[in-house]
Design goal:
alpha+beta, 2 domains, eight-stranded antiparallel sheet, six-stranded mixed sheet, 7 helices, 27 strands, about 20% helix, about 40% strand
Length: about 375
Amino acid sequence: MIRKTYLYENEVWNEDLDASLNSKNTLVICFGNSEYSLINSAFDDVFKTYDNSIIVGCSTAGEIYQDELYEESLSIAVIKFEKSQIRFESSLLNDASESFDVGFDIAKKLCMDNLKGIFVLSDGLNVNGSQLTKGINADLTCEDIIVTGGLAGDDARFEKTWVLLDNKPVSNYVTAVGFYGDDVTIAHGSKGGWSQFGINRMVTESKANVLYKLDHKPALEVYKTYLGNSAKDLPSSGLLYPLMIKEDDDVESKVRTILAINEQDQSITFAGDIPTGSEVMFMKASFAQLIEGANGASKSALIQEHNKEEAINIAISCVGRKLVLGQRTEDEIEAVLDNLDESVLQVGYYSYGEISPLASGKCDLHNQTMTLTLIWES
């Protein structure tokens, strides 16, 4: 595997794009500002230089390049596979209610002999991430297929997100790349760092990812009570206080991030399912907790199997973590890279949701985590 990373900032590239990497077995991964016009000329360069390659990407709430955070930029990784094969698929997502079917469709298209992993980039607003991952899992019969990725971001505005399709930024789509062959390894790690505050509450009315009532009280009313003065800044302030959910049959708890609120019916829309009957806890975090979470993600057992091969690490962290960390955001990015070998190059972004396997091996939607995907060929 030959890999390089590039950064476009202030209308210039940090170095010239290497056209010799252009091939049908080259993957170009792009993470850029949600205001596409700011980086349009950079994408023109990418599309022209890598016209035979598979190009994927999405909008962000901040771009990661090596150990630094950038905004209004474009961070890309170019990976030319020498022994393995890759394949691209996409599916239209007309409405969040179609998320399961779209996930199933994506997995069905990619599920071929010797599939080792799938990397997913999805619209960040018009999606139910829980149902998307359930759909993917429903068609994957092999438990050791690694599925990772994330939802597109839009800073803390929640107005528009995009993914790349046919060299254009589009909303309402899910895109994915499949990796094939015995020589490719995909390792992953995901950690949070949030802690509970307040009392546990029961979800007494919900539908998919829309929460209506907690303990038989209007959900938004309850949530505003916890947020206090910050309630006036919803939905963005909700990123600082996500919900952790626990179902009776769950091995692991999961964190959910707010996408939207509805004052009329006092409901809250989350990035993933909030099942009726589940127990929820309000969460908060400190600088130290979040940075330690990022540190833990890069120390996962699978990632530690990497042994100096040239590799790319894709770091996807939640915009809520960025809001809490503020000027210390780069501390968690540095914590990740410090635990990886010098042969690893890193790109990534801040998202509206992260996709990574649970302990069961099946992928699920995560929120408020630092999620890593490490790719190399042996």
